[in-house]
Amino acid sequence: MTGGLHVSNLTIRRTGDKQRAGPVMIGPVSFAAGGGSTVGLVGETGAGKTLVLRALMGLLPAGFEMAGEVQIGADAPHQDSAALRAELGRRIGVVLQSPFTAFDPLRPVGAQVTEGVLRRKLMSKVAAREHAAGLLRQMGFDQPNELGKLFPNQLSGGMAQRIAIAMSVMPSPAVLLADEPTSALDATLRIRVLELLQGFVRQQHAVLVMVSHDLGLVADFSQQLIVLYSGRVVESGTAGELLARPRHPYTQALIACTPKLGLDGGRELPSIAGSVPSPLQRIAGCRFAARCPIVTERCRTEEPLLRTVGGAQVACHLAEKALARHD
Amino acid sequence: MSAINLPDTLLRGERSERTASRHRRGSLTAGLIVLGGMLVFSVAASLAGGSASHQDLASALAPPGHGGHLFGADALGRDVMSWVGGGIRTSFEVAVCVVALSAAFGCTVGILAGYLGGWLDAALMRIADIQLSIPPLPLFIAASVIIVNNLLSLVILISIVGWVPYARLCRARTLVIRERGYVAAARLAGRRRGAIAVLHLLPGLTTEIAVLASLQAGIALLWEAGLSFLGLGLQPPYVSLGFLMSEGKEVLSQAWWVATFPGIALALLVVGFNLTGDGIRDLFNNDVSGGLR
Amino acid sequence: MTDACVVAENLTKVYRSGHRLVRALDEVSFEVQAGQTLAVIGESGSGKSTLTRLITGLELPTTGRILINGAPARLRSGRPASAQLIFQDPAGSLNPYRKVWKSVAEPLRHLNRRARRSAAAEMLVRVGIDRDRHEDRPGRFSGGQLQRIAIARTLVARADVLLCDEPTSALDVSVQAQILNLLRELQQDIGFTCVFVTHDLAVAQVVADHILVLRDGRVREMAGAAEFFSGPRDPYSRALVASTGNRRQPASPHGEDAP
Questions:
Q1: pLDDT for position B163
Q2: Is the N or C terminus of chain B more exposed, i.e. has fewer CB atoms within 10 Å?
């Protein structure tokens, strides 16, 4: 297997003093993705999805540490942040939410696109320029050389994000990590940009891990979905299956309260009472118990672990019941 | 900062965030300790010794330690320690008054210009430009012809020279803050512009004004000392560090203590104000973000 | 003459940006009946935010006029505006240095302190903020809670018209549902007229009685909601609807595109 990403039991915790580390704040997260596929990491604010992405980049903020294994392709698995950090710009590429944070406002974009690979001596100057031109053409620009002379402030949001993506994929990374890559863009551009990302991923046999709070959008473009709630994985499986037959009450509620075109307007949107507890908060039992419509006593005392329920993984004692309610 | 360099930028952000929080409290504490120490010294000196202006020709140019003069005495037998203590107090008075006056005037101009905009903004900023183009020293020299040895006049003069930075700062920040949602909401609630300026614009400015004020205080001190040194500022009966330094200059080879102790005091005051200003800025500046949230 | 609450007549707003003239709005006209909700749909640059500023009176149109209950929309010092605004960024709409009850009580300048405090408290509780949080500052609240506080402030002003400028775009989906439900419930109780600006057609469908599509400052289409969503006439509107519709609807089997 040339491509692929295999993450085993990735956990993030606060660095405690000396030996005693804090309790597991986020995780464990495990998944295996074949080359050419997309993994969607879904969750609301405070679920911890950005921290998971930062852990995969090897860039956890001060005060947090990771444990677990991350294996890229057939390489030896990495177990700490420093090893992953070393892969940034080579085997791991990053696309961020705001297209303009990727660029130095004082220099033309053309030079910046090739800068990374040149600094890491991954290809010659000539090769880099050709490769960049090719990528920019794929992103929909017919005049890559003219485009390269522009400064970031002369670009629109959509243009900037497409160029940022080209820049991230220059070293042909095996793994592309995207943090809400389209939420700063207009609706009409979003689909285009995601299609471009997917195109690259398939072509290069790379794996795209995409974080989003927009369940519907991510589901359209991912093969696998992982749903995070308050730091825990509550459900994980193939995108189609998860959306068609969600097994966890949170996933069900999330899908239900997303407005969709086509239903009668003016109806009251179902909503989830309360709010998401912070991953730092210690809670006995299931973290969703306080807001769950089918909660039982067992839920409040015993934290459910991920288990397989007919083709997907769910962390819920009552997954079968939730599934039956849904169907 | 290409996406490939992005890791480097993020890494630098992480590292500097860690060192910044260590520095944050350090500067402020150090600054306040220095200033506090100077004030205490000043009070102690005036309690211990006699009047700063008391002349005792018998102990003229006495070296430090002789005849009850811990810091020595000057050519007229004045106790250097008492003079330094009194000088520190004068410096504080000047600094505080100058800062209060120039900040009040400069901030008002800046907020008006930034909030109301239009021709008022243009007019006020041109006045500021004119102010900046006048070199201070010739102004002081010219003014000294009319105004002689008067603390209030000196304070006013130095304030005239120093209000523009406040105006510029307040105008720039006001331009940003007035676009915020809560300012528009206040207008929609029926608040008058004046009330909006005080309730909604000013609180967002106070930290930066405080930082600027600390730094300007040091500058005001140096102006006062420099002018007094040149004979254009404060002379006896006022007790000024600058005045003693100019006396000390004459006898530098025989009696180093007359110029040195006031000089050290002056330096410490300026350093104290600067550290305090840095400390306040670091304490409230949380902008060392690394990109990802 | 209908008893339309909000009437826009040939609204045009021109800005100078550098040495260029920008037409943010071009001859925009519409009416909204009392107690109803008009959803204004547009992407960035369509002029939708400018429209909200004109309706509230924060800015004056270059030509044309806005009438609220027959009177031109203008801000008068000392009295709250008859059209109030909910902003997209909940944190930016509240003064971070003031306690939230004070911000909510801002439109009530003419009452004494005790009356203001109790009116603010009542409204905060109504929108779901507990009494023990009223003395807190905005920094201690989540985005959804801040938006509720902002809504409380507009209600306290007893506005005839509530303008919402993308009020839920920055919020999570579950929080968005709570806020939309809250707005609907309050509208049913109080009966204010609502102009709801959004780029999200699905959200528009939930709230709107009528739809107005803006592009580059011009009205592309205006129709009743049911009529619009069953088949928009304007090609731009149709493109918007097409790009919003999920390619893979939840709770329906999908076709997989294999890697």
A1: 95
A2: C
B64 falls within a domain: no
Q: What is the ipTM of this complex?
A: 0.86
- Burial label for C252, CB within 10 Å (0-12, 13-18, 19+), is exposed
Q: Is residue A255 a part of any domain in this protein?
A: no
Which chain A residues have a beta carbon less than 8 Å from that of B290?
A: 59, 61
**What is the total count of domains within chain B?**
1
Where residue C245 falls among pLDDT bands split at 50, 70, 90? Answer: low
Mean pLDDT of the A70-97 span: 89
Instruction: Check B7 against A102: CB less than 8 A apart.
Output: no
A201: domain range?
5-238
> B21 lies in a domain?
no
* B5 SS3 class: coil
Q: What is the C-alpha separation between B173 and B104, in angstroms, rounded? A: 16
Residues C107, B193: C-beta atoms closer than 8 Å = no
- Residue B166's nearest CA partner among B220, B116, B117 is B220
* Tens-place pLDDT, residues B143-167: 877 777 888 889 999 999 999 999 9
C202 touches chain A (CB under 8 A): yes
Q: Report the percent of chain A where pLDDT is more than 90.
A: 30
Asked if C114 has any chain A CB less than 8 Å from its own CB, the reply is no
- In a domain? residue A167: yes
How confident is the model over A129-188, as pLDDT tens digits?
Answer: 999 999 998 888 889 889 989 999 888 888 899 899 999 989 989 999 999 888 777 777
**Within a domain: B61:** no
Asked whether residue A319 is domain-assigned, the answer is no
Chain A residues within 8 A (CB-CB) of chain C?
34-37, 44-45, 157, 186-188, 190-191, 202, 213-217, 219-220, 223, 239-240, 243-244, 253-255, 257-263, 265-273, 275
Residues of B within 8 A of A112 (CB-CB) are 1-2
Pick from C45, C94, C89, C55: nearest CA to C75:
C55
Name the residue of chain A whose CA is nearest to B10's CA. A59
| Residues counted in chain A | 327
Question: What is the average pLDDT value for chain A, to the nearest integer?
Answer: 87
Q: How does residue A320 score in pLDDT terms, banded at 50, 70 and 90?
A: confident
- Does residue B173 belong to any structural domain of this protein? yes
Q: Could you tell me the CATH number of the domain that includes residue A223?
A: 3.40.50.300
Looking at residues A30-40, what average pLDDT do you find?
A: 92
Query: CA angle, A235 as apex, A234 and A241 as ends, to 5°?
Result: 160
Burial of A321 (0-12, 13-18, 19+ CB in 10 A): middle
Chain C residues touching residue A266 (CB < 8 angstroms): 206-209, 225
Q: Report the first-to-last Cα separation within chain C, whole angstroms.
A: 61
Whether A297 is in a domain gets the answer no
Beta bridge partners of A38: A208
C242 to chain A, any CB pair closer than 8 A? The answer is: no
Chain C hits for B204, Cβ within 8 Å: 97
pLDDT at C257: 29
Does the pLDDT of residue B73 top 60, yes or no?
yes
Structural domain including B257 reads 26-54+69-292
CB contact (8 A) between residue C172 and residue A34: no
The structural domain count of chain A equals: 1
pTM above 0.80, yes or no: yes
Sheet holding C83-86, edge to edge: C83-86, C161-165, C193-198, C37-41, C210-215, C218-224
Q: What CATH number does residue B162 fall under?
A: 1.10.3720.10
